[in-house]
Amino acid sequence: MSDACDQCTRRSWLVGRLSGHLETIRGDRPAVRCVLALSDEQLVAAVGGRERGRIEAQWKAFNPALERSRWERCGARAICLHSSDYPLRLHELPDPPAVLHFVGTIERFRLLVNGSPLVAIVGSRRASSDGLDLACELGRQLSLCGVTVVSGMALGIDSAVHEGALSTGARTVAVLACGPERPYPARRRQMHGQLREAAVVVSELPPGSSPYRWAFPARNRVIAAITSMTVVVEAAERSGSLITAEIAADLGRTVGAVPGSPSSWHSAGANALLRDGANFVRDARDVLDDLLGAGFADSTSRSQEQDRSRMEEGFSEAQLSVLEAIARGARTAAAVSEQCSTLDDAIVPLTELELAGVLSRRDDGSYRRR
Q1: Which residues of 180-206 are buried (b: 16+ CB within 10 A; e: fewer)?
Q2: Is residue 366 over pLDDT 80?
Q3: Which residues form a coiled coil (predicted)?
């Protein structure tokens, strides 16, 4: 089912129809964004070229209901910028996508996109083994902490991030530069299948759209805008992930980067971001601290007494350590982990206590006693 009005459906079709024409201005990223902010009539006039008359005729004869039926036959759903499910953060863009097409259920979309903290993790397609390992671990740990990790399903860092999140509950969203039903790159067909079954795959381009080069930086603006923080794991000096970081900074989002060797081309872009003021990221704890803060202290002597009574009810030592940390004012997984040696030491007992009804997790990811 699609939740897209006729006006936005028409706009989405037009952007897809003009994809080949937009390719002619791909070398000028600001120009692409300016063009995407034009009205339908202005867009056709700007890039329609010799086909302008034909496209105008098709646009006037366009049937939105038939187009939405085509999307559904491709297995895709859609929400437009007038829908209550449309992510509020995207409205901050000067050129927000008229329609977000996605594969996956609307319930998962609401949970992963609108019901969780979101962090973008991006980086090089030609990443080092250390970079891939770190990206996978970031995806895994953040997913465990209830954070949705967003990336582009590209080879390298992007895929490693999704892989980590898929291993622990699939709190991840892939944003593509083609139709959402298309596995791109083709080498990620299996991952695409896993994402559409357990997570969400999103695109502003309608089903059937090819991955033109202009669409990748355009896709990056969606990744930057939809999330609260962008983390660059590895990036060369001219990496596309730096576009994402630049847009995120322009929108007032937090930008973080993983430091690397000064002699490694893999990390030249990330190191430049750090030099320019990006937040220092070593692990998921740093991301959680930047994203959610250190938590708030509202412990009382009564909660401490409850902790002691729980000890007599057979709670494990790890669970008691978590309860004691929360009683001392720790609220986020990162803050609790500082008192439990490692993040992994905190995640399992936190999850167990939440499932047991002892702790509840708020929308911002913080924990409190019930």
Answers
A1: bbbbbeeebeebbebbbeebbbbbbbb
A2: no
A3: none
Cβ neighbour number for residue 357 with a 10 Å cutoff: 8
Q: What share of the chain is helix, strand, coil (3-state, %, to 5)?
A: 50, 10, 35
Angstrom distance (rounded) from CA 138 to CA 168: 11
Residue with tokens 């969780």, as numbered in its chain:
116
CATH 3.40.50.450 describes domain 74-290: yes
Structure tokens at 6: 């006729």
Q: Is residue 294's pLDDT more than 50? A: no
Q: Which of 317, 90, 107 is nearest to 204 (CA)?
A: 90
- Full-model pTM: 0.78
Give the burial class of 370: count Cβ atoms within 10 A of its Cβ; 0-12 exposed, 13-18 middle, 19 or more buried.
exposed
Element counts in the chain: helices (H) and strands (E): 18, 12
Q: Assign 304 a pLDDT band (cuts: 50, 70, 90).
A: very low
**Residue range(s) in the chain whose domain bears CATH number 1.10.10:** 301-369
Q: How confident is the model at residue 297 (pLDDT cuts 50, 70, 90)?
A: very low
pLDDT at 255: 97
Residue 302 clears pLDDT 50, i.e. is over it: no
CA distance 123 to 131: 9
The side-by-side arrangement of strands in the sheet containing 2-3 is 2-3, 77-80, 99-103, 200-203, 172-175, 148-151, 118-122, 229-232, 254-257, 279-280
Q: Where along the chain do the CATH 3.40.50.450 domains lie?
A: 74-290
Q: Residue 185, preceding bond cis, omega within 30 degrees?
A: yes
Determine phi and psi for 204, rounding to 5 degrees. Answer: -85, -15
CATH topology of domain 301-369: Arc Repressor Mutant, subunit A (1.10.10)
Q: Tell me the residue length of the chain.
A: 370
Residue 211 CA to residue 200 CA, distance in Å, equals: 18
